[in-house]
From TrEMBL:
<dbReference type="InterPro" id="IPR019734">
    <property type="entry name" value="TPR_rpt"/>
</dbReference>
<dbReference type="Pfam" id="PF07719">
    <property type="entry name" value="TPR_2"/>
</dbReference>
<feature type="repeat" description="TPR">
    <location>
        <begin position="5"/>
        <end position="38"/>
    </location>
</feature>
<keyword id="KW-0802">TPR repeat</keyword>
<feature type="repeat" description="TPR">
    <location>
        <begin position="39"/>
        <end position="72"/>
    </location>
</feature>
<feature type="repeat" description="TPR">
    <location>
        <begin position="187"/>
        <end position="220"/>
    </location>
</feature>
<dbReference type="InterPro" id="IPR018253">
    <property type="entry name" value="DnaJ_domain_CS"/>
</dbReference>
<dbReference type="Pfam" id="PF13181">
    <property type="entry name" value="TPR_8"/>
</dbReference>
<feature type="domain" description="J">
    <location>
        <begin position="358"/>
        <end position="428"/>
    </location>
</feature>
<dbReference type="InterPro" id="IPR001623">
    <property type="entry name" value="DnaJ_domain"/>
</dbReference>
<dbReference type="InterPro" id="IPR011990">
    <property type="entry name" value="TPR-like_helical_dom_sf"/>
</dbReference>
<protein>
    <recommendedName>
        <fullName>J domain-containing protein</fullName>
    </recommendedName>
</protein>
<keyword id="KW-0677">Repeat</keyword>
<dbReference type="InterPro" id="IPR013105">
    <property type="entry name" value="TPR_2"/>
</dbReference>
<dbReference type="InterPro" id="IPR036869">
    <property type="entry name" value="J_dom_sf"/>
</dbReference>
<dbReference type="Pfam" id="PF00226">
    <property type="entry name" value="DnaJ"/>
</dbReference>
């Protein structure tokens, strides 16, 4: 058998040199079948597996080779290289130590020694950033570690975990699934898969995956913590919704507030909790708090239509009409429905109305004032603001009083004319913004000429 095995090894070597690794693998495997105690055959097959990036099988073969021949230095070199690829720092250290024992002058693993130092530094930096919850930094340094150790599942899954924390669940789940395909019993991979469900508001599936990870590894601390957190968040969310639907708004507000403290990274669920709390705040009259909550929702998800519509309504309620119009315009961009178009028209109308002068306020009278009350109010205000009364005032003061005098005249011109007053009271003048055409001084003279007023041709005042 030995001669046949040697022939198989020779054929394997030829295929290896030609980079036909799959063929080389077959010949080396045939040789091992014929002579299973040959460390050389295992060493050669280990080298072939390495060229195929199958570091797990390569490591197994290299370890078998040194078990058969404890002085097989080249096999220890391959162990060191495989351990580098798999991110196994302890394995690298042990292999290097054995090589140095066999040959203190050996420089076969100088590169691996340097990589070992780099991995040590990277792991310390990664751990520090992870502990500080600087997950973007963790991902950055893990990418550097993965370049050095491309077959390290631990690095890849830690990166996936941090991507999930950062809300990049699509990337995270791809990594987790790729590892599960290679190792269906990886508790860490299943934990990360559960994390992705959790951060995309699928709490039930998240809980199932955390429980499965714990079946595979009962001491999996992260899976335990996330299972507890998921169940707590699910219960509180459901309880808050029940309280809201039953009209117990203040109790619901407390529950939603407490639920928001559970995990600030779960933006998907928190956006819904914030929206629900905004609804509660709008129900109990905390309109400004409702606006803040809606704004926080939209910071998380600018496409959250319900939050945009609620904030628009709340802005309208506190007479922030420009903000209301802006929100309805943004909502219409997201969904062009007749209902939103009408809401936008109404908001624009309210904005125009808010910019129209309040003639009743200018005259200081209620909206149901009689004709006599309107006249009395005009007489009083006109006398207070007439330019002659302020002839000795500063230039700024004279301008201010002239403006008020004109506004008083405008108010009286509209409210003393039955047709214009009806249009004004019914908001029919808003679209055309009809402005009275008059001379306030002429109106003043006309008013006092027929109603009786100060004597003197110049209508001067004596105070």
């Amino acid at each position: 058998f030995f001669s046949i095995a040697e022939e198989k090894k020779k054929l394997g070597n030829e295929q290896y040199k030609a980079k036909n690794y799959q063929s080389a693998l077959k010949f080396y495997s045939d040789a091992i079948s014929l002579c299973p105690d040959s460390s050389t055959y295992y060493g050669n097959r280990a080298a072939t597996y390495m060229m195929m990036s199958n570091y797990t099988n390569a490591l197994n073969d290299a370890r078998t080779a040194v078990r058969l021949d404890p002085n097989f230095e080249k096999a220890y070199v391959r162990i060191a290289k495989c351990c580098v690829a798999k991110g196994d720092i302890i394995g690298i250290e042990q292999a290097i130590k054995k090589i140095e024992e066999l040959d203190p002058q050996s420089n076969a693993v100088e590169g691996e020694k340097q990589t070992l130092q780099q991995l040590r530094q990277l792991e310390q930096t990664i751990q520090n950033n992870y502990d500080s919850k600087f997950y973007r930094n963790v991902v950055y340094y893990l990418d550097a570690a993965i370049k050095l150790s491309p077959a390290c599942y631990r690095y890849r899954l830690l990166k996936a975990e941090c991507l999930a924390f950062l809300g990049r669940c699509d990337e995270a789940v791809d990594i987790a699934i790729s590892v599960i395909k290679l190792d269906s019993t990886s508790a860490d991979a299943i934990y990360v898969r559960g994390l992705c469900f959790y951060y995309t508001d699928n709490l039930d599936k998240g809980i199932k995956h955390f429980e499965l990870a714990l079946q595979l590894d009962p001491d999996h601390k992260k899976a335990k913590e996330m299972r507890t957190k998921s169940k707590t968040l699910k219960d509180m969310k459901e309880k808050g919704n029940v309280l809201f639907k039953s009209g117990r708004y203040r109790e619901a507000q407390t529950i939603y507030t407490d639920a928001l403290k559970i995990d600030e990274l779960n933006k998907e669920i928190n956006s819904k909790l914030l929206y629900n709390r905004a609804l509660v705040n709008s129900k109990i009259g905390n309109t400004r708090d409702a606006i803040v909550d809606c704004t926080n929702v939209l910071d998380i998800n600018a496409q959250y239509l319900k939050a945009l519509l609620l904030r628009a309504r709340c802005h309208n309620d506190i007479e922030k009409y420009e903000e209301s119009v802006s929100d309805y315009e943004a909502a219409l961009q997201l969904q062009k429905t007749p209902e939103i178009k009408k809401l936008l028209r109404d908001a624009k109308f309210a904005l125009k109305k808010s910019k129209r002068k309040d003639y009743y306020k200018i005259l200081g009278i209620p909206r149901n004032a009689s004709d006599d009350e309107i006249k009395k109010a005009y007489r009083k205000k006109a006398l207070v603001h007439h330019p002659d009364r302020h002839a000795n005032s500063s230039l700024d003061e004279r301008k201010e009083q002239e403006l008020k005098f004109k506004e008083v005249g405008e108010a009286y011109a509209i409210l003393s004319d039955p047709r214009k007053k009806v249009r004004y009271d019914n908001d029919q003048d808003i679209e055309d913004q009809e402005q009275p055409d008059f001379d306030p001084n002429q109106m003043f003279r006309h008013f006092f000429q027929f109603s009786g007023g100060p004597s003197g041709a110049s209508f001067g005042f004596e105070f």
